[in-house]
From TrEMBL:
Species this chain originates from: Ananas comosus (Pineapple)
Protein name: Anaphase-promoting complex subunit 4
GO biological process: anaphase-promoting complex-dependent catabolic process; cell division; protein K11-linked ubiquitination
Occurrences of domain Anaphase-promoting complex subunit 4 long (ranges): 117-318
GO cellular component, one term: anaphase-promoting complex
Any Pfam family hit: ANAPC4
Positions in coiled-coil regions: none
Keyword Transport in record: no
Length: 623
């Protein structure tokens, strides 16, 4: 996927970094995942799961100086090809294809404006607020996980109860049809109440109890309702209620953080929004308590009604009733009137249902507000599902503020047009790679005055399209683009670059920066036919052996790499470390610096894994 940074750009901590990480335990595992897409969006996620920012490179103001004039540009129809966040979280290098035009203009008549552009974004907010972001992300991601448990629990409970009620209505619903068939002008409630008060059993009710329902059918329905009730209690007590209680605790911790305005308000943690979430979490706990009580009452009513129906069936069949549990006639009346056709449990799972609350209860709730109760006095009129939806909405609003605040603080700091290219599908764009290396002795002299000790210098590697600059079979390498940003260091050294020409008999399929200032090139045989399907090579070259030229000394003001054509370096395979592959290979080339391996894919759809730090004759490749 464009924008996802592969494992070859991972950097290992040195001893000083490790000591620093141990001293800062709260941020020891803090990390941010950056990803871009074909529409120009770049997303930032803490731990890879909690979204903390999103920008569109097409909407950014790209400020830079061309022809000694400060100009603001924008990228139209831009897509993200590659992103790489620096280890200190302060800078993000973005490689983007698009049309570079002056801000406010719809298009540019110059075809050279369309191409690959390197953009440097200021992401120092991640470093300056690392502790705060880490704390908020930990709590927020935990809350979101718990909210998912609540959502799943409610869904499972609703389905289990619905299945049991469907069976109940399927069995008892046949009584209405029998009443119509017998030409009676009554309802199922009338028939059951007549039977309860000792009236003569109608033919329809007699047929229903003895034939349609029967003792076996009644026991089946009773067992289904009882099992559903047990399952609901298990989910309620072991999943739903604990999840809401823990979520409430986590929200309370966020509420405490939000009151530290000096540190957390600047990153968008609003106390008022968190207070609202806290109240909604408390209301949801009350809804769960009410649901538990309603469930217990309804289940007892069902059991009492089923026992009474079983007793009636046995009496009609002239069977002994001494084994039937005693029933409460008053509860049977209540069930027939209010539960036979109504389902209070189902109503609590409905979002749009409104619960009637008596006036006395409303007055008591209003009195509790004075004592610090919930300011929303209509929460008892809402259902469990409705209350959960409101909690979710409040959480989204509260978490959207840090997301929006952080996004607004990510700005463009520099721009470097790399090369021009004709418009083409993103899938056909040339390969690129970005990485950061520790300063080597050969480049220390250029950067040591402008970068702190043990700093990292960025490398950007890319294949130059054949139609760009009139070059063929060429790759480019840019070093020190981020150190050039005048917003970071006014005395910074100028970025340097080099163009490397690959021999005509080879074709570059993919490339990747590797550790220790090395580049891995994946080459196919340029000329092949059906009889000879071709061969491939994986070549490792050292960037330290290349002669980089400063871009500030070049005359061309827009695409500075154009002036490097005259000083292009020819690549000789014998000067690098070569691995022969007896197949044609395809994209992508996957390289892991930490593991020292590379994976390539052959035209035969085989994955080939190579150990890069071993000589070819010392290790066998895995296929």
């Amino acid at each position: 996927m464009p924008g996802l940074v592969s494992g070859d750009t991972d950097l290992m901590d040195d001893s000083e970094d490790a000591i620093h990480d141990l001293s800062g335990a709260p941020c020891q595992r803090f990390n941010i995942l950056c990803s871009g897409d074909k529409n120009g969006f770049i997303c930032f996620s803490i731990f890879g799961i909690f979204p903390v920012g999103k920008i569109n490179i097409q909407q950014l103001h790209l400020c830079t100086k061309f022809s000694r004039k400060e100009t603001t540009y924008q990228l139209l129809n831009a897509s993200i090809n590659k992103v790489s966040l620096s280890k200190n979280l302060c800078q993000l290098v973005v490689l983007s294809f698009g049309e570079l035009v002056e801000f406010g203009k719809s298009s540019c008549c110059d075809d050279l404006s369309v191409g690959l552009h390197c953009v440097l974004l200021d992401t120092s907010i991640f470093q300056s607020r690392k502790n705060e972001l880490h704390q908020v992300a930990q709590q927020a991601s935990s809350i979101e996980d718990l909210i998912e448990v609540v959502r799943t629990s409610i869904s499972v409970m609703s389905k289990q109860w619905s299945d049991a009620m469907n069976l109940f209505h399927e069995k008892f619903g046949s009584l209405s049809a029998l009443i119509v068939d017998h030409g009676l002008d009554s309802s199922p409630q009338d028939e059951f109440l007549s039977l309860l008060f000792g009236a003569r059993t109608s033919p329809a009710l007699h047929q229903f109890l003895v034939s349609s329902l029967g003792e076996a059918g009644l026991k089946r329905v009773s067992r289904a309702v009882d099992n559903a009730g047990k399952e609901l209690r298990v989910v309620l007590n072991e999943h739903l209620q604990p999840a809401v209680e823990i979520a409430g605790f986590r929200i309370g911790e966020l509420r405490g953080l939000s009151r530290w305005r000096a540190r957390f308000q600047s990153m968008g943690l609003e106390e008022k929004l968190i207070d609202n979430v806290t109240e909604k979490a408390g209301m949801l706990l009350i809804q769960i308590e009410r649901f538990s009580r309603v469930l217990a009452i309804v289940l007892y009513q069902f059991q009492n009604f089923f026992n009474w129906v079983l007793k009636c069936i046995k009496i009609l069949l002239s069977e002994p009733t001494d084994q039937v549990q005693p029933t409460n006639s008053e509860l049977v009346v209540l069930f027939i009137k209010f539960l036979l056709d109504n389902d209070p449990i189902k109503e609590l799972f409905e979002v749009n249902h409104r619960i009637d609350v008596d006036m006395e209860t409303k007055q008591q709730v209003e009195q509790l507000v004075v004592l610090g109760g919930f300011t929303d006095m209509k929460f008892l009129e809402r259902t469990l599902a409705c209350e959960f939806n409101q909690l979710e909405q409040c959480l989204k609003e509260a978490f959207l503020m840090p997301f929006t605040t952080i996004s607004a603080k990510i700005l463009c700091r520099d721009l470097l047009p790399v090369y021009s290219i004709s418009t083409s599908p993103v899938s056909q764009l040339p390969p690129t790679s970005i990485s950061y290396y520790k300063l080597q002795d050969e480049v220390n002299c250029a950067f040591q005055s402008c970068m702190p000790l043990h700093s990292l210098v960025d490398y950007i590697c890319f294949k130059v399209p054949d139609e760009s600059f009139g070059l063929t079979n060429c790759i480019g390498i840019i070093r020190g683009f981020t150190s050039n940003s005048r917003f970071i260091n006014k005395e910074a050294a100028s970025p340097a670059a080099v163009l490397l020409r690959i021999p005509d008999e080879y074709e570059c399929v993919d490339l990747s920066l590797y550790k220790d200032n090395q580049i891995i090139l994946l080459l196919n045989e340029a000329f092949s036919n059906s009889e000879s399907p071709g061969k491939s090579w994986m070549v490792m070259i050292q960037t330290g052996d290349l002669c980089f030229l400063s871009l500030s000394n070049l005359e061309h003001d827009f695409y500075k790499l154009h002036d490097l054509k005259a000083s292009m370096v020819d690549m000789h395979l014998e000067n690098g470390k070569i691995r022969f592959i007896p197949h044609c290979v395809t994209k992508p080339l996957a390289v892991s610096a930490s593991r020292g391996v590379a994976c390539v894919f052959s035209s035969r759809r085989h994955a080939l894994v190579y150990i890069l730090d071993e000589d070819e004759d010392e290790v066998s490749d895995m296929e």
